[in-house]
Amino acid sequence: MSAVSTADTLTLASAINAGLRAAMERDPKVLLMGEDIGILGGVFRVTDGLFKDFGGDRVMDTPLAESGIVGTAIGLAMRGYRPVVEIQFDGFIFPAFDQITTSLAKLHARSGGSITVPVVIRVPYAGGIGAIEHHSESPEVLFAHTAGLRVCTPATPQDGFDMIQQAIASPDPVLFFEPKARYWDKGEVGRERVAAQLDAPDGALAATAELGHARVAREGDDVTLVSYGPTVRLALQAADVAAQDGVSAEVIDLRSLSPLDSDAVVASAKKTGRVVVIHEANMTYGSGAEISARISEQAFFHLRAPVLRVGGFHAQYPGAKYEHEYLPNIDRVLDAVDRVVAH
Amino acid sequence: MDAVGPLSDDGLVGLLDHTGERKEHEFFSPYAADLTPDDLRGFYRAMSLTRAFDKEAESLQRQGELGLWVQSLGQEGAQVGSGAVLRNPDYAFPSYREHAVAFQRGVDLPQMLTIFRGLKHGAWDPADHNFHLYTLVIGAHTLHATGYAMGLDKDGLVASGKPENDGAVITYFGDGATAQGDVSEALVFASVYNAPIVFFCQNNQFAISEPTTRQARVPLSERGKGVGMPTVRVDGNDVIASYAVTNWAMQYARSGAGPVFIEAFTYRMGAHTTSDDPTRYRSKADEAYWAERDPIARLATHLTAVGELPQAFIDEVVQEGKDLARRTREEVRSWEPGPNVGMFDNVYAAPHANVEAERAWYERFEASFVESH
């Protein structure tokens, strides 16, 4: 058969599953570790079928101990393995916070570069699914704040498929945040491009570089909406509505928080002069604050209005009946758009 | 001692008592039977040289040449005895006081002081010595050790059918670390995955000022029993017994039988670090009691009694210790910091745009202070 480019329609969850499978087929050192990821296939079924096809030595159900999962993954990485760890829910990553920030993030540096720890930590995160306490949180900036970690988050099935493989290929530890409310969104997924990238010489470096780049999800002229993970779809919906009012919104999908693609954000800010940053995590000291600071440092005289943030509030994540008012929603995004346009 | 619980000296395996007399142990004696007088003199030399280095580092800290020093004084028996068992592909994961193990794994001891002079965080390449970096986060490395051991197993280096090719991991930690969650999790993971690892707990009786009774109500070796692994309590100031129990445990782990927990009961004769003041929390009488149980002195007494420690050998070791101390002093004083911009090296293994941007900014900033000619 000739190499015809083909695309399947997949959900985000099944695209990540396909990406994990491709990575395991490409490199026998890739291992999956986590709670209930084996015979159950993960509570979100992201590892569905992999235990059956690759066996328990490579798809490892672990004891219920997050620090232990990440800590042993570090040791396996030192032995040449590439562990891909699943933390079952965002709010349960904190028992592993010490291993991630004091060991995983630092081993390459403190060894003077002699040790690499290519561990990927997959985290279903963010809210909007009517879940109980601790199952809807957005802790991504705690890791983006930590030198030594890469932090990324896909918003589309194509990015889910590509980015999980690029994260696994990266020589650095990667926190891979998966927007769980978007797991069932469908999209076209082509498989050839990332395969060609990873099979090429220096493919891992090219993949790591690409992993750090933002994507313009929609072009526009009047205002820039900066989003990532779960808020990309919201930003696109807001852009559709704004267009009906004659406001042309550009939507940036950051894809990566560490590194942060400052160049892409600053270029768009210079073009539109108005920026709204949208994320689910609470705004205090958040990624919106970081982005706003970078824009004021690098594009101050291009701005026509203050950079605004639309995010979670400085409150504990509320019960599910209130979450749609805690989270950024289309009314709050459009309100911010109105304010920067009217400024 | 009249202590009870975790400070009891009941049930300790001993093959050389504190008067220097050899003892037999029905189970463990065979695991020290291969030790020749040459080996024992090697133990004496390793313990003595580490102590000479340790004393010099202490002095250098007092003279302001080092920011901090962590003495291994008194724990040389547990460390040399256990470290002597290791061979490739065995791998050791130390805490931060295992200078005598480092010596045996071929780490150049003076280089270790680059850490304590504030120049580096890691002073050797672990792959060169199968000896991991020191870890200051108490107990965190026991999980890395367990994962590494799981990897040895996956690599077919356990119970391979060729025992000489098999390997296992040993991880060192203290009495304080046993209270850490990570150590408990490491014991659980090692147990359920049947990992080839020996948990070597040096109970030196103090976590800075807190006695072991603040960490446990039972002997620390009991921790292993709760997860179903064999446990041994050994006199850690007895280098021969420390060798024997570790020799057995590493063979056990390499054979695929699973993990082992060893508690080596010893005494931190020095301070926790040069910033500590033990006079606030322990008595002179206690220190004197343990000074009589010095691991080096009892081995010297034994070897002398059996005519295997000629004065010429002692003199040679003393001279070697002086030479090591002098070289340590000279090297430490010669070290100057490298370029500041080195702080941006190895933050990541692949280029990271935000780090590169800060590096570029810093280089311009630093260059702006250079006087023009």
> In order across it, which strands form the biggest sheet of chain A?
3-2-4-5-7-6-12
Proportion in helices of chain B: 40-55%
Q: Please give the count of helices of chain B.
A: 13
CATH topology of the largest domain in chain B: Rossmann fold
Instruction: Kindly report the name of the CATH homologous superfamily of the largest domain in chain A.
Output: Thiamin diphosphate (ThDP)-binding fold, Pyr/PP domains
Helix content range of chain A: 25-40%
Termini Cα gap of chain B: 73 Å
Structural class of chain A: alpha/beta
> What's the name of the CATH homologous superfamily of the largest domain in chain B?
Thiamin diphosphate (ThDP)-binding fold, Pyr/PP domains
CATH class label of the largest domain in chain B: Alpha Beta
Tally the structural domains of chain A: 2
Number of domains of chain B: 2
**Number of beta-strand segments of chain B:** 7
The oligomerization state is heterodimer
Secondary-structure element string of chain A:
EHEHEHEHHEHEHEEHHEEHEEHEHEHH
CA-based gyration radius of chain B? 22 Å
Unreliable sequence segments of chain A:
none
